[in-house]
Amino acid sequence: MPHSLLAPTPAGPGLAPRYREPAARRPSANPYVRLFALPGTRAFTAGNLVARLPMGMFSVSAVIMIAGGYGSYALAGAVTATGLAATAVVAPWTARLVDRYGQARVAVPAALLAVLGQLALVLCVRAGAPAWTLFACYAATATAPNTGGMSRARWAHLYRDDPAARHTANAFEQAADELCFMLGPVLAAFLCAALFPEAGSLAGAALFLGGVLVFAAQRSTEPPPSPRVSAGSPLRAPGMAPLLGVFLALGAVFGAMEVVTLAYVDGPAAGPVLALQAAGSCAAGLLYGRVRRTVGLVPCLVAMTALMALPLLAASGGALPALAGALLVAGMATAPTLVTGMSRVQSLTPPSRLNEGMTLAVTALLGGIAAGSAAGGWTVEHVGAVYGYVLPVAAAGTALLPAALPGHAASRRP
């Protein structure tokens, strides 16, 4: 007797309908086809990708715009660093409001405030306003909601009874992150150079707000809010603190690798060469999402530490093509590691605080990126770019310490 590919089953109050595939069809089905078979998933993913692309545009656009208007890369770097610090403080609070009052209700006004901050920054640069106004405007963009975290929360809600589908969803989201951070800076630099210095910021603001509006409009897939949150802070969950330490060290890997590579290549080829690391991570993330078994965080970090030594070896030889290939291969360890780590965050965080828990992980990553960037810049200036490639290896090895702590959840398989 013919049957539909997706058969609905009853859902509880406030929950999205659950779907069960026929058992005979499951083993041979492409996991990504299954992932997007649920109604509404393609629409919210499309809006989320549009909103996420500017995350890789804003900082590059701000640096080009401010450096061009004020003639100071130091000022541009200080302004973007201030925005990063403000985001680290504000983002968990925004995520807590999202958990409590719902994604659409909080994300739209939070995105509007962030876009107003971007527009104010453009106006201040255009008018040559005092430097302190730039800091204030860019700090206002910290209200931008964590669109990637909200998307992961939707997948976790829709596939709350299907760990394999959640694994595929996390892999897809990580690959999407890498793709956006690979294309975003290239798009921003092109717009600023081809049109005018403020074009990258304006285009990013329009894409971000439009994407958030489309994403928020998909109410059928939105997790129900938890107005009366009884669960404690995700920070108090056993194993969460060492896991955030892992994310902090991973951020240092990315921050150091970016600055050191830009200094080592020192030319127009720097962007494409650096993008190869994100390309390798994107491809590995999509492949990792297709496997039916996951590995623990410690094996992922061991592989990452080993592969991060490849750029160091290539840079020591002085051949740019070798460095490009090494970055491509080294990037392949990134997505599986972050997917495994984010899966651990989801398993440790109460459902009513899921956005907050994932935003804490992203905040730890941002803090690590800032520290890695600073350490990479100091090393390049005082020791040399080749020796700067020691930092990503050391940071990846450091991430192993909290992950391998006996008895902590960070060391277990998701």
TrEMBL record:
GO terms for molecular function: transmembrane transporter activity. The chain crosses the membrane at residues 73-94, 106-129, 187-216, 237-257, 269-288, 295-314, 320-339, 360-380, 386-405. Keywords: Membrane, Transmembrane, Transmembrane helix. Residues 1-17 have a biased composition (Low complexity). Residues 1-23 are annotated as: Disordered. PANTHER family: MAJOR FACILITATOR SUPERFAMILY (MFS) PROFILE DOMAIN-CONTAINING PROTEIN, PTHR23542. This is Transporter. It comes from Streptomyces termitum.
